[in-house]
Design goal:
This protein is mainly alpha-helical and about 300 residues long. It has two domains: about 55 residues, no CATH class; about 240 residues, no CATH class. Helices cover about 65% and strands about 0% of the residues. The protein contains seven helices and two strands. A two-stranded parallel sheet has the order 1-2. Helix 1 runs antiparallel to helix 2, helix 2 packs parallel to helix 5 and helix 3 packs antiparallel against helix 5. The protein is globular and about 75 Å long. It comes from Algisphaera agarilytica. Keywords: Membrane, Transmembrane, Transmembrane helix. This is Putative RNA-binding Zn-ribbon protein involved in translation (DUF1610 family).
Amino acid sequence: MSSAFPATIPVRLNAEGYIDIDVHCPTCGYNLRMQKVANACPECGAPVDVVERDDADRLERADPGWLKRIERGTGWLHGAALATVLFVVPGIVWAAAALWLLTTKEPNRRETWYHRGTRLSARWASVLAAAAALATLGMLIARYVTAWSEKGIELGGGPSGVNPILKIQRAVAPMMSGDWGTFDLLASTAAAAMAVAMLEAWRHLFALAARADGPAVAQRCRATWKRYLVGVGAIVGLAVATNVVEWMDWQLPGKLYEWTALILVGIVLVVVLWIWWATVRLTRDFRRLLLKSHAG
């Protein structure tokens, strides 16, 4: 995963060059405090995955106004993760607003192309996800409102005597029909764009956690990134397999079809809950780290 994250985590060292903070070996979990950076883990022999931190680049020395925006964005992202359980579209929009704050450019700090690309990818992918989610919700509302109208609910008519809601229905209906309509495209775009935004966000937050003297949180950013990647891969794989089965017109017996569908839905739900819980815990702990860093 070195292409997605730096190979090492910056940590504080004491005057003798020993690790001066609790940081655990990613392989076996052994606490590497008071170990030399050049040494291997005494428990499992894996290389010590840290490097000396640049004390001049500590997060608490950053612009206070910018740091407050990062803290607020982390809190919003935590709230959005909780809200998404009940309200998916508002949760996505809230998460996009949170990522907009989290990816604010730090003033008076030189930014590498690597970090700039990561920051802007998270920012604009979340905006695309929010726009697609709102469009998806709009199409759903138009569909159900017109369904009520067709059942005889009076919603008012235009000068021509034709209910304006029915005109919307005629425009929206073709978009929601067929094997791959506009509705499916918008919903898939919202999900894919938010997945990209969060994958990039964890890379961005990893660097901030390392600067905030939080190697444990930085390691969890990396672990959560891997969870997202595995989860997205699993869901995409199941979706592709399902479409292949439909395209090949493979017929399963009734009971077997029902059980297979139930198992697949269960797997997707477990994966989504696995990712969601990791997000809730990490955003909570990341905000605590920022508050502690700011107080210091």
